[in-house]
Amino acid sequence: MTKYIFVTGGVTSSLGKGIISSSLAKLLQARNYSVTIQKLDPYINIDPGTLNPYEHGECYVTEDGAETDLDLGHYERFLNIYTSQANNVTTGKIYSSVINKERKGDYLGKTVQIIPHITDEIKYRIKLLGKNNKFDFVITEIGGTVGDIESLPYIEAIRQLKWKNSNEILVIHLTLVPYLSASKELKTKPTQHSVKMLLENGVQPDILILRTEHSLNKDIRKKVALFCNVDINSVIESIDVKSIYEVPIKMQEEKLDITVLKKLGLPILEKPDLILWKNFLKKLENPEKNTKIAIVGKYVELPDAYKSIVESLIHAGAKNNCKVELKFVHSEKIIPNKEKDFFSDVKGILVAPGFGHRGIDGKILSAKYARENNIPFLGICLGMQCAVIDFAQNVLNLKDANSTEMHRNTKNPVIDIMEEQKEITEFGGTMRLGSYMCKIKKNSKAFQAYKNTSIKERHRHRYEFNNNFLEEYEKNGMIATGINPDTELVEIIEIPKHKWFVGVQFHPEYKSTVVKAHPLFIEFIKNTIC
Ligand code: GLN
Known about the structure:
This protein is about 35% helix and about 20% strand.
């Protein structure tokens, strides 16, 4: 029977519910249980695909083409499994399906209400993942903070599930124990209040995880246990650590997995096998070499906008026994003849994905600088398109060459809107999304990386390389080394004469995991240190 674990958050946002959920999932997975994680987001957008990255950080894309919250990236990176459309549900999705059912007459004339109709839909979406007992555990992270108006229906849904079948449900509440440096004290009151708020909504948490800057002594744990109505073994410390990847180890030391299994009446099975994970951590903590990579983008003030890229570079760095220092470069600041000011101290340049005109010139200049100075270059999606534009303008001498996204009437649309995108007017969920096949030419940097001629990668774009120009590019030294076998869309471009210059129309960063760093990132980093 599938068990359902809920992770709620109290006191403040950004305590790391996603990392805690992923860490618990990792520990259960390491004990041979099958686990999946779901995020319920209390906002009204149908998905984060239309959200500005400044609002919500990166939009993560799953294999089946869902545009999702960046926490799903953590789930996949920690667990080395794929998630899907069903793993991210928003209030927008819930209301939209309830309203559609109402319009179809499915509620037979009843007044449609938050309880039971919205809460039933929430419960349905949670149980969907546990259908046919595919997983031993479904861990559901509730976005937002307890006490928000928006999360009330979710908490109510948990209350109903627990009321109906308490032995298959477990609630973990993550809160903060702040440290007052003036009085040198850790304070438990915010946690008490936050648990009280959950209790007001009818939910008694089973386990409390306390985020803290300083270790919690026995007295504090006892106090929290007493005031919050949990046993002392269920008060778990989550101390600040340098890397998110240390959290599973910390949670294991705190016996979080054992407490969860005992509470749900499940066997403790064998000791967790975390050898690969620990090997990764060892390499991460003891690098033998170092490198410095520039990430060029327009959202660099908010590194969460490039979360998966940053994590992929960390994974690839560890694989190469190399510490990767990141330098975020704002693409709007790069101007002609000043590129050196930004790049003289870096060993590799990565031009990030993006949409719209802002900052595009700086991205094109970055690709040009990497090309002309033989600096390892990785262009992702818009980054690849910028490399293509630079090559047209400065090597093929097509001075007005551009993407029709930036310059609608260019005479040389080297990047153009995809045929199937031309009639689409709605924004949400309408791009070329999710996993597509790519055939790779042997004798290419891509083949050297993947060691395979057939790969699958995830996409999120509307524009593509214009094949009318391909011959001209290949004659002049930029080659298409990856092609979609069904549509002929160019997926990878390279400059064979360059040390390592690769542009990809897809997003390799969505598929890099802790125990399986992505081959393109591994090769990119490798070429910056040799
Ligand atoms: N804006 C470009 C397109 O739609 C690139 C998208 C991206 O970088 N994800 O094709």
